[in-house]
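[Q] Does anyone have a clean structure-token version of this?
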Amino acid sequence: MSATPPSSAPPSLSSSPPTHITRTHANVRTDSQSTHRHVPWTTHTLRQLKLVLPGAALTYYLGTVHDFLSILHGGGGSWAQTGAFTASGLGIMTIALFIYVLLMPWISGEEPNYQSWRDSGILSSVIPALTGSIVIGWLLAVSTLGQWSSLGYVKGTIGVSAFYALTFGLLGLIPVPRIGSRKTMKEKL
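[A] Here you go.
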């Protein structure tokens, strides 16, 4: 009796990566490098408007921008003005870093793998800076409005959160550039 050694893994769990493209859902393309989800622009715009419209309405209703600008112009004293300027600077830094991450494919000529950002040289430094500027800027804006405006802490928190939702909703409407042939930073090395 001639016995051949049994295969240690079933054929479906082969160790070699797939080299073909398969479709798992109607709008999802899977290949050996990544998973892309193509969302129609109308669906994407509606998702972003779910942030923009309530954010704009709450920001306007609460008068968040008006109160913040009055503090920025010295309405609460020098400490309040310093806090408002710092929060504004962090907000501008957040927007600049966000746009940089969106435009990275055009700048570098390659599409980064956002899902494994810790492995990327550029993204591993930009993403923590972006996260820090969002969190610290939000906290400082809430503290400034809560302490030196008529909004107080509860309405200040709601107003700043609404303004951030409005801002991120608008930033999300910027089209993401795609590079023709997908080459990740890992493949270039």
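[Q] Thanks! Anything notable?
[A] The beta strands are 22-25, 28-30, 35-37.
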